[in-house]
Design brief:
By secondary structure, the chain is α+β, with helices and mostly antiparallel strands. It is built from 6 helices and 6 strands; from the N terminus they run ββαββαββαααα. The strands form 2 sheets. The protein has a 4-stranded mixed beta sheet with strand order 2-1-4-3. A two-stranded antiparallel sheet has the order 5-6. A hairpin with a 4-residue loop joins strand 3 and strand 4. The protein is elongated.
Amino acid sequence: METAVPTLESCPALVLNADYRPLSYYPLSLWCWQDAVKAVFMERVVIVAEYDRVIRSPSFEFKLPSVICLKRYVKPAPFPAFTRFNLFLRDEFACQYCGDRHDLTFDHLVPRAYGGITTWENVITACAPCNLRKGGRTPGEAGMHPRTVPFRPNQHDLQDRGRRFPPNYLHESWRDYLYWDAELEP
């Protein structure tokens, strides 16, 4: 029985910073195979691990990189971008009113109609039914108070939470680099 050869599109490269930590956990720092190969030929990265998948040209044969490391260190931003995914990650993918994990959206504690702005400190994750029930009122007016106080997370906050919600796809060659600071089992 033959083993199926993975498609090129199913061979992204995990990108590590020069300190061998992922450039980003959330979203996971991945480059498509073309960008990874280009970076190798431009001598911007070092290949750390490879797939079994080979690409060929008339003059060479090359195993696709599965893990690459930048040669120059890129200083990470101290605070993550305010995105829907990062907000859900901060709130651990749970409604901050009832704890439900389905049909998630976000809610302004001080509604925009009252001058509320879209910031880390004023927006929380809410399920659609709770968001609808609260409507355009403040938590006090609606009698609905969030379980936690919203805050602006730093990179460490999101990385800590993200370890509990790993990406859907993790190639085996990536595991040692994603959780390098996790406590080892005896």
